[in-house]
Amino acid sequence: MALLFFLFLGCSVGYWTIGVGLLGGSNLKQGLKSMLTPTLLALFLALTLSISGLSAYVPDILVKLSSTVGAAALPLMLLLIGASMYGAPLMMHKRDLAYLPFVRLILLPALIIFIIQRLPLSNTVYNIVLIVSLMPVAVTSNILVRRYGGSPDFAAAAAVVTTLVSIITIPIGCMLLRVP
Predict the structure, then answer these.
(1) SS3 label, residue 88
(2) Contacts from 170-177 at CB under 8 Å and sequence distance 24+?
(3) pLDDT, tens digit, for every residue of 136-165?
(4) Looking at the whole model, is its pTM more than 0.90?
(5) How many Å apart are CA 178 and CA 86, to the nearest integer?
(6) Closest by alpha carbon to 88, among 149, 143, 157?
(7) Where are the domains of the chain?
(8) Distance between the two ends of the chain, CA-based, in angstroms?
């Protein structure tokens, strides 16, 4: 579980720094400014509290409040995606939505697995990277394109389509590529 946490931590930092920086600004100053997101600040605050040992001094009410708000995040994201897709001209993106599952759920995982098989990694790390590479488009992409420009309709449809296709590709990918 700790290895998955560290992989997720690295991905989150990359997502909320490099990803947001690339989307958020036409120049370096604007890109750096757009990286100061509440998510990234909360991530660094949590890391600081955890590493320093100060997390034991956080009041229980704040821990419970954070847990409750965190539990509401996924349902709210699903509502946002549903609202984004309502009345959206989905047929406008049909060509992109047709090849996106192949690229995101087959081609990229195959490339990632090809690379990590050549690295001296433990079986546990290999399996974690395998599972993470097989995941569909993140629902948070809808928030990023709303804030920094892009097509919310396409982001919502991409999350839904890749999630539906991943019902098939994740078990097959794990069965074919998993290290015992």
Answers:
(1) coil
(2) 170/131, 170/134, 170/135, 173/105, 173/109, 173/130, 173/134, 174/130, 174/131, 174/134, 177/113, 177/130
(3) 988 888 778 877 777 888 888 888 899 999
(4) no
(5) 38
(6) 157
(7) 89-180
(8) 17
